[in-house]
Amino acid sequence: xxxxxxxxxxxxxxxxxxxxxxxxxxxxxxxxxxxxxxxxxxxxxxxxxxxxxxxxxxxxxxxxxxxxxxxxxxxxxxxxxxxxxxxxxxxxxxxxxxxxxxxxxxxxxxxxxxxxxxxxxxxxxxxxxxxxxxxxxxxxxxxxxxxxxxxxxxxxxxxxxxxxxxxxxxxxxxxxxxxxxxxxxxxxxxxxxxxxxxxxxxxxxxxxxxxxxxxxxxxxxxxxxxxx
Length: 228
Prior knowledge:
Strands 1, 2, 3, 6, 7, 8, 9 and 10 form an 8-stranded antiparallel beta sheet that branches. The chain is built from 6 helices and 11 strands. It has 2 domains: 12-174, Elongation Factor Tu (Ef-tu), domain 3 (Beta Barrel), CATH 2.40.30; 192-226, no CATH class. Helix content is 17%, strand content 26%. By secondary structure, it is α+β, with helices and mostly antiparallel strands.
């Protein structure tokens, strides 16, 4: 019997699969019909499955991702080290890989496949990648704040790491909406504290108090103490 995580949003196809009434719209023959594997359709440990667009994927899944920063490096003549400027965030590749070994897992994968691999229509193409962005949930991706991606490629099933299993790979790119604000941050040699505290020419800090605030106590020097 399939297992669903308590509290996880599921769709009607998942419920039907759990109840044993699920049938894929168009059946593709299972790779080993005479000696199929056995086990739950949906695993219960959150580290063992992925959730695509709020639907748990069948079988065992692992994920890969690599977000990075856009970096400029500049070396100043006659000095050691580098000035490193971060020019923004680069959405990295996201890959999820599933292992299927039972007929029920295979049947459900066939049913959900059209929602995973979508060829953009002309209208969707104008909105790309927003129209093709999908949510993806897995603890490993959540650690780095990755929650959406755009599927850019899928691999046909191929023999998996365990006997009588098939592996399916789904490749994508993290989806991050365009930020119109330019954000840069440079890491380099710090400015010495003495230089930071040195008054700049023309500033009020470069003139004596008598020229800026009327003396130490706020009165002109010739009136302090009642002198005329």
